[in-house]
Write a structure and sequence with these properties.
This protein has about 300 residues and is an alpha/beta fold. It has one domain: Rossmann fold, CATH 3.40.50.720. It contains twelve helices and 15 strands. The strands form four sheets. Strands 1, 2, 3, 4, 5, 6, 7, 9 and 13 form a nine-stranded mixed sheet that branches. A two-stranded parallel sheet has the order 8-15. Strand 5, helix 3 and strand 6 form a beta-alpha-beta unit. The longest helix is centred in the first third of the chain and has 23 residues. It is globular and about 60 Å long.
Length: about 300
Amino acid sequence: MRIAVTGSTGLIGNALVAAMQQRGDVVVRLVRRPPANASEAEWNPTTGFVDPAGLAGVDAVVHLAGAGVGDHRWTPAYKREIRTSRTAGTHTIAQAIAEMPTPPKVLVSASAIGFYGDTADLAVDEDSPAGTGFLADVVVAWEGAADPAREAGIRVAHPRTGLVVASEGGAWQRLFPIFKLGAGGKLGSGKQYWSFISLRDEVAGLLRLIDDESLSGPVNLTSPNPVTNADITKAMAAVLHRPALVPVPSFALKLVLGEFSQEVLGSARVLPTRLSAAGFSWQEPDISSAIRAAL
């Protein structure tokens, strides 16, 4: 297959591109600068430009680009960047492929479990309604920005990704060094659910969304076994053979992280019902195996 990818240099994008190339796909990286070689094509979500030559003949488009949610403190300006980078970029890609004489068969357009908001102990899946809060509102708008592709008859799948367990990026990139020093501990009460997925299962899930014509709309990319932050703390300590006795109180997280602390302390017990129904097989279904794989 010939597949165009945005966000190809990020944690997930880099691993996905490697997996696609390994299975024989031809990958076109959409970049926000002049192309360096024939495997790249330029796009600009700010101006709404996508080089049509770069999309010519593609069978699928995977759109992963967007500002990192936890990369900066949530100032009003950065919250606008989080939202705009997702909605403008998604609309640009969706509109571009909708206008193609021969459009790709599928658009896999990134999303997140932030859609559900804080679910406390309640288990939710793809049939559950949107939650409340900043990220939930962003995800609703983010998925909606792909409407031009849907309206053109293109299959659109939204992988609602959980917390990716990987040493190269995301939350665990910050957690591993702390726990290796024996300074790890639960965050807040530790009772909040963290719906995770290993990087290998994330990539496999995205490939399944590209290939499986029966999957469209929201599809949760999470482990079938969500666990609490306290459970994760115990697993990290056991796998790394380090003590984990230094809890971080809620007030400290709020002081350091500001509004983003609501997401760290919030609970999301998300189940991958549609992926399970499609017969997907997880390689790291539990938190301990996911941590070991990341190491």
